[in-house]
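Researcher: Here's my situation. A collaborator sent me these components and asked whether they could plausibly form a single complex. I don't have experimental data yet, so a predicted model of the whole assembly would be a useful starting point for our discussion.
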Amino acid sequence: MNFSFLKKLRVVLAIFFLVLLALLFIDFRKSFSKEFYLWSVSLQFVPAMLKAYFVPGVAILSITFILLLTLFFGRVYCSVLCPLGILQDVISWISGKSKKKRRYKYHKAWTIGRYILLTIVISPLLFGSVTMVTLLDPYSLFGRISTTLFKPVAVVLNNILAAGFAKADVYNWLYRYDMIAVYPAILIITTLFLAGIGYTSFTRGRLYCNTICPVGTFLGLISRFAIFKIKISKQDCTHCGRCARACKAECIEVKSQTIDYSRCVACFNCLTVCSDKAMTYNPKSLKPFVMAEGTGPKAAHKKVASPPDSSKRKFLVTSLVGIAALYGFKAPDSIPGDKKPKLIVPKPKGESTVPEVKTSAVSPPGSRSVERFNKICTGCSLCVSACPTKVLQPSFLQYGMIGMMQPHMDYHKGLCEFDCTLCSDVCPTGAIVPITMDAKHLLQIGQVHFEKKNCIVEVEKTDCGACSEHCPTKAVHMIPYGKLFIPEVDQKICVGCGACEYACPTTPFKAIYVNGNPIHLAAEKPKTEKAKNALKEGEFPF
Amino acid sequence: MERRKFITSGIGAGLATGAAITFGGIDNLIAGNAALPYDLIAVRGGEPDVMFDKGIEALGGMSQFVKPGQKVVIKPNIGWDRVPERGANTNPVLVKRIVEQCLKAGAKEVFVFDHTCHEWTKCYKNSGIEAAVVAAGGKMVPGDSERYYQKVNFSGGSKLKEMKVHELIMNSDVFINVPILKHHSSSKISICMKNMMGCVWDRGFWHKNDLHQCIADFLHYKKPHLNVVDAYYVLKQNGPMGVSLDDVITMKSLILSRDIVAADSAATKFFGKDPADINHIQMASAAGLGIMDLSKININRINL
């Protein structure tokens, strides 16, 4: 039987999922519906697992599907569904096309390291910390890489084209878009990850997936027992080694004619290159495995597996230690809820003088509480990408070290629109639970605070009122102040949307700002009176 | 009868003004004002499009403002993600009719934009204005990126001397201002002059540097050729976006004028306030940018 169709099928599906997921994160034109978002990410392992646990529903089917898929066919997930895996395949493919053609060779599995790492990632989950998963989950990594690094490239290209069209008075196809700069630390971390994964995939194929990736290691535990497996026929194999050189998982040992199924990502490249028709992909036979080493004339072709590369190993150990150290950095007193105001910007002369006192970051509407959000969100940044007002931004230390890269409401960058629930609709992990529009209108994610000493009306003695202008409930309203009008706040009806903070023109400190509610509360409904028309029908007041 | 006579005699005067615009350039537009019979048209009791047809007819027709081949920019208020009944954005029926009239008068292209406060695509869509403009043959233009705004320097203003304005305001031949009359928490009332804030990028600067003065100062840079105030739905309280439908009354009125200060003054009276109490109207009038005193201008009142 010719198995080469399997690789073709794999490539077509992989390209489909890579393009689909990349578009989700790169899109800045709000092209997709919430259903499209949900379906597109529904087969991602870590989000589906978290959602199945925290917000049980369809996600249970997703996770069952992925586990059964692996049990039947091996780690097909890694080759077809995982966007980071496919991205690595693209890099490996480019590497293979390069002048100095790269060939893979068999390496022993780094078994102990893999399982220690998996333990390090999983065990904090038991104590309610998702931090290590956030850092290493391949889907979330891909999301951050796409949003932080790929999206800007797309936006720059778009803006160049849009500017050209605008010159010709054509405005209806493309429009220009302003990006929000992410924190340098986030940019650096994401770039380092891409550089690291880019390097390992360029030189060693799926090394990341088979050493560091928690999903890869976990699915590897199942794929050992997969029903469909690639097998080498001892009779037909000539030890030519083509399969091993084509294996980007570096898991085929020609000497012993064996395959390490915990590392095989079911890419089917070996099936395509085997000229002896010695490789098959069939259901498990019930016969016991013959593990004896090949002997006879064919043994002459035997290749000696090269010893593990010690420098690369050192690199891995160092990065592992580094990551562990980063995790250890999570000091308990940096958890939100402490009373220390965070002052980042120094005060220039002639600007507002009183620092904003924020004791808690604002987590997105639908996350219920900061603690709950920190426990579930893997920082994939899908909500950041979908957010129409750019108010959702990856955090740096707003939640403390524990929540780095999880999005927070950045009211210096945008406001949360009253009539929008998109982040809660698209969240794949359940960190943000879907809420209805009516619920959103009465949900208080933070409370407004007014600092008169910073206010334009007080300092400059001129009218301003930008805060009240943007307030959807008039929790911020204007009251007489001599000949002027000054803001007054009513925290009971404040929803914490941050419109006032965003609109407030004072710098560096705002005169009005929202302090997060660690646990989201209910806001009261604003009371309104029916407006009266003093003018009679047909009457002119002049 | 009187009114008809005025209109007939107005056509000749209108032609003269048209010639003045053509030969004397846009800046001389205000000088040509005196030749017109009416300084301000106030219409009551009709649908927005019907009131506009009557009003523009009383001003001598759209051809007074738009010449064949010209590029027109219409600046409604599309600031908020609100449906028309909430009275936060200009009525789409009115905007549609203005676009149609401009194209009928021979405009080469009609552009519509606003620098919105809420997310712009939602504002354009839910205000109904995008659909109305496209149906009428006009073009919606984004105003959401700083890249669409260019720096201009100008003299005359006391606080505002430079700003970044939308490229369409700079490059179009005809500039039509179509605000909605509403309450406003910052500027007390939002009509024609306040609507100009949607032409600039950095509104925070205005808020920081004497809001009322900056609103008046903008007119030293440019005045719209025609102001059309939508007072069909009027947001009487909790402006500029409103909290609920309770804030809105149905007034079914429309004001048209070349004089932006006069239009604001008349609209303020419709709203039930004294224009002299609104600082920016007072300031613009004092600076000679238009006439606030309605007893000094010729008004045509039309009841449908």
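Model: Some features of this prediction you could bring to your collaborator: Residues 5-35 of chain B have pLDDT under 50 and may be disordered. The two ends of chain B are 16 Å apart (CA to CA).
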